[in-house]
Amino acid sequence: MQKDKLKVIPLGGLGEIGMNAMALETHGDMVLIDCGLQFPDASYPGVEVLVPDLSYVLERLDKLRGIIVTHGHDDHIGAIPFLLREKELDIYSTPFPRGLIEQKLAEFSGVKEARFHTVEPRKKFSVGCFNFDPIPVQHSIIEALAFAIETPAGTVIHSGDFKHDPKEASRGEITFQAFHEYGDKGVLLLMSDSTNAEREGHTLSEVDIEKSFEKILTNQTGRLIIALFASNIRRLERIMAIAKKQGKKVALMGRSMHSYTRIAFEQNSLTIPEDTLIPIENVGKYRDDQVIVLSTGSQAEPRSALVRVAEGIHKDFEIRKTDTVVMSSRFIPGNERAITRMIDNLYRSGADVLYESVHQIHVSGHGFQEELMMMLKATRPKFFIPIHGEFRHLSKHAKLAVGSGVKEENSVVVEDGQVIEITADEIKLGEKLEIVKLPAVENLYVDGSPEALKQKHALAKAGIVFVALFRNPRTHQLLSDPIVCVQGLLLYHGSDEQEVIAGAKKKLIAVNADYGDREDFEEIVKLETRRYFRRHASYKPVVIPVVIP
Ligand SMILES: [Zn+2]
After folding, report:
1. Distance 201 CA to ligand 1 centre (A)
2. Could you tell me if 175 and 444 are in contact, meaning their C-beta atoms sit under 8 angstroms apart?
3. Helix pair 95-107, 255-266: axis angle to 10 deg
4. How much is the pTM?
5. Ligand 1: distance of its center to the CA of 231 in Å?
6. Residue 369, number of CB atoms within 10 A of its CB
7. Please, what are the averages of pLDDT over each run of 10 residues along the chain (549 residues)?
8. The domain that contains 258 carries what CATH number?
9. Number of domains in the chain
10. Which of 355, 379, 413 marks a domain boundary?
11. What residues are neighbours of ligand 1 (ion), with CB under 5 Å?
12. Do 383 and 397 belong together in one domain?
């Protein structure tokens, strides 16, 4: 590989929302920016998380100099423990993501040593031949970073996840100044967050959200249960501050609500006002209009606190008719059905529910089109690769880049596995890696081959029939009636299961008489059984034939 060449290897997050992982490789070194996981949709039945396929990195572990973390969301750090099972690693991170990673590692078995290096905003550090400048950005989690990276090919900017909230920024937190400065010096490549590339305009400000909460708390008559991501430390902090101002009490509900606030508090990144926090068991000691509960479960994750509350099975908290539940989050596509089911259950218990579409109680952590244009116009890159998004988000973002002055041939839309090769004057597609998403359950990989998933879907869709035939080894005559068991078949209305099974047995006796001495008899049994059941059920079932001998 040429000395001045840079390879960009997207291993996750390009073509989907989630599991972000991006390798940068030169002649002698490789770094991995983020290593996240994805929560699967219904196309992965029985799977808890998806992990990016890091084979490319694993095959070049001697070159890997470390993982650089942009921020602590699970889709950026969640797969790090899986990689640590393969190799001890250097991890470059700010304190909050580090605390979250350490907690994950404590729950994983068989992980090797993680050597943490503390990253501070605007304090440059080198990893191999790469020189990183961490630039703070606004996002829905504290300590979010973009990186300006000096590489042998030129300056690369990786935006991480970001938005621009000027009202918030005017409080002195974060500006776009650093991006302008890099733009002035010359940026070779910008890789930028595309999550909201389809949404026009500008995100609302967290300051407006704060005002909405102030109003809601002022007008509250019963208890308030606010569901939000535990990682949104700033929003949690604001709600606690408003509660304190109004002399109210706040209880935390859900495992991650406790762990995220504990880590942020221990690191002095979260101010908890005095005499405000109470244990959830004690909410009964206060007047209803004084009680605010901050809860996990805004995406109706199975087993989450709010889901259990909605189903009336939470051990410390029961919904009352006078309660109001505030959903301070977006309904993430794929979760809508679970969320609406949970909201229905909350209404059934008599509670009122407020959500984003009706009230200003949530704002995205990802910039809309105007903010994406701001990033493009500040950095003025020669080459552009949209990252973090499904294909349509990436495509839209690439068009925005062209609109902001990037040459059309230099604005490159690629998906996971497509290697890109860059020099100071050229961007071109390299090899295309064969990559698959790796499904895992309880921290362990499971078989996620297309064949295994096809079988799972077939079982779910069509059900299963088990057939056993016991025969005389010489004459192939049946020694007893065939055994037929069915599971999960949707028979046509009016069919009687016992009659259908009796018919199947009769059919199998006939099949044995006609084809019993054939070499491919087992295959014939399978085909004929499938065919028979198709006449009585909605789909041809999966058939498991056992013929002895
Ligand atoms: Zn994020």
Report:
1. 20
2. no
3. 130
4. 0.90
5. 10
6. 18
7. 93 95 97 95 85 95 97 97 94 98 94 97 97 96 97 98 84 78 98 97 91 94 96 95 97 96 96 96 95 95 92 93 94 86 94 82 94 97 97 98 97 98 97 93 85 87 95 94 94 92 96 94 96 92 94
8. 3.40.50.10710
9. 3
10. 355
11. 73, 161
12. yes
